[in-house]
């Protein structure tokens, strides 16, 4: 188990990481980088998903002091939590797709998972896209891409679809930031400065085709939401099985049994 978990809110790549050597490359000399270390994964996940900038004794060496970080900058940061982003929708959708990615350590072995609900009932579970040298962000992007692929088929069959993803990074990359990146020739400022570009391009193209018929929302991770928890277990199951293709879970769906699987 890692001794520390490193959260990067603003850097070359954002997320929760377990390697300081890797994390340092993401924030070293990056303008106004925001990052912090945490003792537990839960603390790190909560801090990252809520977009909170809380500084104190755990602050990693080399980080700017809290007094030098303007609140306005933190709020406007692309990696920070949008203040009006919904957590869930009150509308009843005929199809709800939960997606999740896992990587342990990060970077390291990665996998993606989905749980699909039709008319309020669990219908399918999916897992795979194993990558021995992946990251949590690449796994989350792969999961959202697969969710969009399933959504497209459901929309073509006249269904209304909602996708629920616990990665703000993946959602923003595909449904928000990609529009401006595309206008700039798929770059922020210079060629090659967007990580995971290939999967972002594929997922964004698909999203752009169906965006008027699908709702993509953020859901809080690890708070007991069944669909999210099952997608989490499937992402780790994909790692354990080293399943490189994206596979439908073929065993009888015993939710209690699956929820007892290793977590991400």
From TrEMBL:
Keyword Nuclease tagged: yes
Task performed by this protein: Endonuclease that specifically degrades the RNA of RNA-DNA hybrids.
Catalysis performed (reactions): Endonucleolytic cleavage to 5'-phosphomonoester
GO molecular function list: magnesium ion binding; nucleic acid binding; RNA-DNA hybrid ribonuclease activity
One example of a Gene Ontology biological process annotation: DNA replication, removal of RNA primer
Protein family (similarity comment): Belongs to the RNase H family.
Positions of the RNase H type-1 domain: 91-240
EC number(s) on file: 3.1.26.4
Stated name of the protein: Ribonuclease H
Sequence intervals crossing the membrane: none
Cofactors demanded by this protein: Mg(2+)
Keywords assigned by UniProt, alphabetized: Endonuclease, Hydrolase, Magnesium, Metal-binding, Nuclease
Superkingdom in the source lineage: Bacteria
Record PANTHER family: RIBONUCLEASE H1 (PTHR10642)
Gene3D superfamilies found in the cross-reference section: Ribonuclease H-like superfamily/Ribonuclease H, Ribonuclease H1, N-terminal domain
Organism, as annotated: Candidatus Scalindua japonica
């Amino acid at each position: 188990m890692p001794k520390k978990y490193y959260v990067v809110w603003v850097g070359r790549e954002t997320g929760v990481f377990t390697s300081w050597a890797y994390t340092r490359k993401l924030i070293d000399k990056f303008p106004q980088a925001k990052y912090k270390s945490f003792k537990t994964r839960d603390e790190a996940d909560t801090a990252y998903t809520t977009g909170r900038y809380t500084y104190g004794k755990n602050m990693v060496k080399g980080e700017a002091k809290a007094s030098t970080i303007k609140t306005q900058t933190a709020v406007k940061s692309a990696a920070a939590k949008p203040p009006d982003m919904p957590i869930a929708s009150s509308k009843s959708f005929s199809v709800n797709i939960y997606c999740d990615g896992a990587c342990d350590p990060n970077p390291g072995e990665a996998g993606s998972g989905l749980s699909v609900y039709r008319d309020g009932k669990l219908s399918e579970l999916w897992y795979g896209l194993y990558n021995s040298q992946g990251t949590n962000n690449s796994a989350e992007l792969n999961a959202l891409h697969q969710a969009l692929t399933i959504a497209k088929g459901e929309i073509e069959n006249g269904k209304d679809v909602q996708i629920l993803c616990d990665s703000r990074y993946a959602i923003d990359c595909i449904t928000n930031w990609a529009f401006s990146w595309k206008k700039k020739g798929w770059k922020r400022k210079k060629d090659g400065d967007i990580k995971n570009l290939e999967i972002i391009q594929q997922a964004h193209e698909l999203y752009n085709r169906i965006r008027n018929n699908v709702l993509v929302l953020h859901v809080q991770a690890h708070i007991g939401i069944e669909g999210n928890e099952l997608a989490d277990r499937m992402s780790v199951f994909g790692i354990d099985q080293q399943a490189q293709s994206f596979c439908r879970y073929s065993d009888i769906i015993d939710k209690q049994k699956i929820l007892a699987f290793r977590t991400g």
